[in-house]
């Protein structure tokens, strides 16, 4: 009744407002009732709002909400800002929720007293997505009778002369986008470079819940033939021998088997020479590994050599022997006669002693007498080593016997111990030893650290068995037999003075 009255009273004013409303709409800020958008998974519950935009002031909104069957409207909540009151605080608005919650569901609000201004939420709708819903957009649209969208354009509530005017709201649909997963838990996967064997991939983000790649790509990249996987190893290596070259081996990728670096030959090694090999004419060496002759064979270089020294007891032997390889020409073997044995007779110093002693503390002469003429003396040896002639004096006694006397400077160089003295005789003057006289002397009381080192000491450390301390100087007199033929081959004769 009130609405009809208002229309009748202010027709002109309505026309005026309608014109201005159209004019403002053309500027791009036309009034809208907008349904929001949301994303939800199957079975999930989510809120959708219906909001006013570019609201010029409105007193009634009655809309039908249309939605597909895989959405269930659970709950409708009107904004409390829609609750108008009069000057005494008495409510002057009504809202009504849908009588049935199926689509289309009708929402209705009207204020009896005043317009509500501002871009406010009109109502909040709670939807549940069906567990069987298909993925994709579920449109939620609004429809309305334009007559149910109005504002008061003149008059007042108190005067009971309010005049309604339609507000040309544009109805903007929203939607719930049904997705399989909201991707709430994700993992960043770093890029992996391709190798020669394994394809890599770029960086990407993966949903832990559904496994979807949300950002980037896990697509396999091309193999990189230059990035060898798994390291390298050396193959086909071979050590060189004296007969065959070796090989350092090829460096090969363990992943793809490609040869990254070829090896190089290793030079043959030197042959391993054997001892001398020989036949009657020549000598040579062979390799002990490959048996090849090393170098060239050469003729023997012979010299005459004593193979076995003759002694007073037994004949010796000499033959032609190669200086290089030691080959013995057996056909050239010659026998060396036994050596003549001469007697050494103690003649000087403590002549009553059976054997010569040099006492380094006291110093007293002891000597021997043996008979050989001076010119037949070939060499003097101590412990088998020839003694330099500067270390002894050679004289002849009145009977023509040769006397050899060691100088004290030489004796002082000898350590305590027993020494064998050999006097070598060459009676036929051919340069070869053909007889010997041998005796022993003892050095005692020599200070241990006073060692000049002649290299001739026997060094046994045995002391004289005489134990006699008062012998001052040791002299060896070597006297060869005057009549060599007479005494030749005569057995050793020791003179005792007791
Ligand atoms: Zn997901
Ligand atoms: Zn490789
Ligand atoms: Zn060899
Ligand atoms: Zn030889």
Task: Put the structure in a nutshell.
With 498 residues, this protein is mainly beta. A hairpin with an 8-residue loop joins strand 6 (93-96) and strand 7. The site of one zinc ion has 6 residues, from loops.
Describe this structure in words.
The protein has 498 residues and is mainly beta. The chain folds into four domains: 2-179, Immunoglobulin-like (Sandwich), CATH 2.60.40; 184-238 and 253-266, no CATH class; 289-336, no CATH class; 340-487, no CATH class. Helix content is 7%, strand content 39%. The strands form eleven sheets. Strands 2-13-9-4-7-6 form a six-stranded mixed β-sheet, with no helix packed on it. The radius of gyration is 68 Å and the shape is rod-shaped. The N and C termini lie far apart (185 Å). Bound molecules: zinc ion (4 copies). One zinc ion binds at residues 181, 183, 207, 209-210, 212.
Supply the key terms.
7% helix, 498 residues, mainly beta, rod-shaped, 4 domains, disordered C terminus, Immunoglobulin-like, 6-stranded mixed sheet, disordered N terminus, binds zinc ion
Secondary-structure topology with pairs:
Elements: H1 2-9, H2 11-29, E1 32-35, E2 37-41, E3 45-53, E4 60-66, E5 71-78, E6 93-96, E7 105-111, E8 121-129, E9 136-143, E10 150-154, E11 163-166, E12 170-172, E13 174-179, E14 186-189, E15 204-207, E16 213-216, E17 232-235, E18 246-247, E19 250-253, E20 259-261, E21 265-266, E22 277-278, E23 282-286, E24 293-299, E25 302-308, E26 316-322, E27 328-336, E28 340-342, E29 346-349, E30 356-359, E31 366-368, E32 377-382, E33 385-386, E34 392-396, E35 402-406, H3 408-411, E36 417-425, E37 435-444, H4 484-487
Parallel strand pairs: 1-12, 2-13, 28-37, 30-37
Antiparallel strand pairs: 1-3, 3-8, 4-7, 4-9, 5-8, 6-7, 9-13, 10-11, 14-15, 15-16, 17-19, 18-21, 19-20, 22-23, 23-24, 25-26, 26-27, 29-31, 32-33, 32-36, 34-35, 36-37
The structure holds zinc ion (4 copies).
One zinc ion binds near residues 300, 322, 325 and 327.
